[in-house]
Amino acid sequence: MKITSILVVDDDENDQFICEYTIRKFDPSIRVLKAFDGTEALDILQAETPDAIILDINMPVMNGFEFLDRYAQEFEVHAPIVAMLTSSHLGKDRERAMQYSFVKSYFEKPLQAEHLAVMAELLGD
Predict the structure, then answer these.
(1) Which of 63, 42, 44, 43 is nearest to 5 (CA)?
(2) CA atoms of 10 and 48, how far apart (whole Å)
(3) How far apart are alpha carbons 114 and 48 in whole angstroms?
(4) Residue 104, H or E segment
(5) pLDDT tens-digit profile of 44-60?
(6) Closest CA to 75 of 35, 105, 102
(7) Mind listing the domains of the chain with CATH numbers?
């Protein structure tokens, strides 16, 4: 299955730029939605459900784990794929993130075309 839309949740403008650039290079038809923290992301998700969410862990206002908790509690329908994209190398962060049934991948920054290929493959399953 093809990815048609991705929500990128990251507080860093440079990381947002790299994500959008990589996504556009991978497939220019993918619609890119952006949120700079978990609260913004939840607001966007009130209106639509993207095919995938790329989520950073360390953000102000609402971090990635706080977002995952609220997303799990408040939304009955989840994006088919949530992929963590973080600079955290901690195994405990990976383990914590992967406890959510909708979190399918955990990648280290920066986003790469290979990550998007994995997400597209997961979406096809």
Answers:
(1) 44
(2) 18
(3) 26
(4) strand 103-108
(5) 999 999 999 999 999 99
(6) 102
(7) 5-124 (3.40.50.2300)
DSSP β-bridge partners for residue 82: 53, 103
**What residues of the chain score a pLDDT lower than 50?**
none
Angle between helices 38-47 and 64-74 (to 10 degrees): 30
User: CA-CA distance, 1 to 15, in Å (whole number)?
Assistant: 26
Rounded Cα distance between 60 and 11, Å, is 7
Query: In what helix (H) or strand (E) does residue 124 lie, and over which residues does it extend?
Result: helix 113-124
DSSP 81: E
SS3 90: coil
- State how far the alpha carbon of 23 is from the alpha carbons of 8, 11, 67, 99, in Å: 10, 18, 22, 26
CA-nearest of 25, 11, 23 to 50 is 23
Residue 57 · residue 64 · CB < 8 Å: yes
Position of tokens 């953000």? 59
